[in-house]
Amino acid sequence: LHMQTVVAKQQSIYNVAHRGASGYAPENTMAAYEMAQTMKPDFIELDVQMTKDGVLVVMHDEKVDRTTNGTGYVKDHTLAEIKRLDAGSWFNNAYPDKSKAAYVGLAVPAFEEVVAKFGRNARFFIELKSPEKYPAIEQKLLQILEKNGLLDGVDQNPRVIVESFNRDSLLRMHQLNRKVPLVQLIEYKTPAVVTDAELQAIKQYAIGVAVNGEMMDRAYVQQVTANGMQIYVYTVNEKKTMEKMARWHVTGLFTNYPDRLHEVLNRK
Ligand code: G3P
Ligand code: CA
C-alpha cells in the first residue's frame, strides 16, 4: 500500500519542459517546443526578453550572442533584425551528436507565435527574465495573455504561471491582475534556508517558489509545503535526482528531458 501511495503521489508531479525539450533541440525555439509537446509535459517553460520595438521574444539571455549567430542586446535589435538571426546552428555545433539539419536557420520566436501555435494544447510557465531592463513588460505580457484567452478560467484551471527572480516585477504583475498565478524564483548559492515569515511574505503575491535543486533538502520542501505553497525545482536532468525529488513530493520539476521525467514517474 505504501508503494502505491508513493507512486500515486509521484505521478502528480508537474513536468515542466525547461526552455522546451532543450536537451534535444535548440532551447526556446519552435523545434524545442514541438519536441516537448510530443513528450506531453504539463507545462512548457519559456524565457521572455523584449526587442527595441517592444515585442516580446523567447530567449534566455539578454544578449543574442550565445544562442544565435548575432551579437549584442535583444533590446538594441528590432524584431525584424532578431528574425534574421539563426537560433539553431549553435546547438548543432555545441552538441554534434544531437545535431539536425532542420535546426540550421531556426528563428527566434516571438512569444505570441508560441502562444498562437500551442495555445489550446499547452500550459505555459513564462519567465520574465530581466524585467528591470524592460519598462512595462508586465503590462505587455498581460495584454498578450488576455488577448489570447490564456487567462480564461484562470481560477479553476490556470493555463499560465508567470515566474521571475525579480520580486518587484512579480509585485507589479500581481497589482495589475491578482488572478495570474505567480512563482518566485530563488537561487541559493549555499544550502537553502528560508523562514516562515519570508515564505508568508512571498505568499502575499505568489502561489509558490521555484528553487535550484542542488542546494535544497527535504526539510526545505516540507517547510514550503507546510506554509501552503507550491515548490518547483530547477533544473533536474538526472534520473536519480528526479527520483529523489519525487520522494520529497515537490510540486513540479523543470527539466530539459521531459521524457526522462515521465519514465521515472511512471516506473512501477
Ligand atoms: O525558470 C526556472 C529556471 O529556468 C530558472 O533558471 O536560468 O534556466 O532561466 P534559468
Ligand atoms: Ca527560465
Instruction: Could you tell me the CATH topology label.
Output: TIM Barrel
Strand arrangement in the largest pleated sheet: 1-2-4-5-6-7-8-9
Secondary structure tally: strands:
9
Major sheet details? 8 strands, parallel, barrel
> What count of domains describes the coordinates?
1
Radius of gyration: 18 Å
Spans where pLDDT lies below 50 across 5 or more residues: 4-10
CATH first level: Alpha Beta
Q: Compute the average pLDDT.
A: 95
Name of the CATH homologous superfamily: Phosphatidylinositol (PI) phosphodiesterase
- Helical content band: 25-40%
Strand content: 15-25%
- Taking the alpha carbons of the first and last residues, their distance comes to 13 Å
- Please state the structural category: alpha/beta
Unique ligands: SN-glycerol-3-phosphate, calcium ion
Q: At CATH's second level, what is the architecture?
A: Alpha-Beta Barrel
Q: What's the total helix number?
A: 11
Shape descriptor reads globular
User: Could you give the order of the helices and strands?
Assistant: HEHEEHHHEHEHEHEHEHEH
